[in-house]
Amino acid sequence: MKITSFIFIILFITSSAHADELIEHKALNGKVSLDIPASFTPMPRHLLELKYPSSKRPTEVLSDETGGVSIAFNHTLVKMSSAQVKEAHAAMSKMFHNMYPSAKWIRDETKNIKGRPFMVFELVTPAMDTKIHNIMYGTPVDNRFLLVSFNTTVEQATQWLPIGKRMMDSISIK
Questions:
Q1: pTM of the predicted model, to two decimals?
Q2: CA quadruple 90, 171, 33, 167: dihedral positive or negative?
Q3: Which of 10, 20, 134, 16 is nearest to 69 (CA)?
Q4: Less packed terminus of the chain by CB within 10 Å, N or C?
Q5: What was the pLDDT predicted at 20?
């Protein structure tokens, strides 16, 4: 019995330590960089299709092995300049509030990060069998709208939310 408990504790400590190890990741051909957990890999196709069932999937999605924690990059075709971030934020805010009337809102703002304007949304939304804590940052890259989204299930939020915030705060646009 004691050996089983000891093995469980060791596995928990090593998995938690590994999740905290962040490495630089470059997305969109090096135009975006941020720190991500070393254990994150491209989300497997079957999980990608389950999590993003529509044909408008993000450009790139990285996740833990379960797919319950992920970061997605969606470099859209929507034209946007830095001067349009506040206006776009207002429109997206209205859309998100209408789409998720039962969401718990934490942040809904614009702010400068490393000298660039970003729209920031943080909210908890209902999903099929759980709730999802979302942190989304949007800004123009190459005059097109980029949305970077960190997601974790609320069950995993205690472990992953601090890491997700560090990841999002590390975003750098070249």
A1: 0.85
A2: negative
A3: 134
A4: N
A5: 60
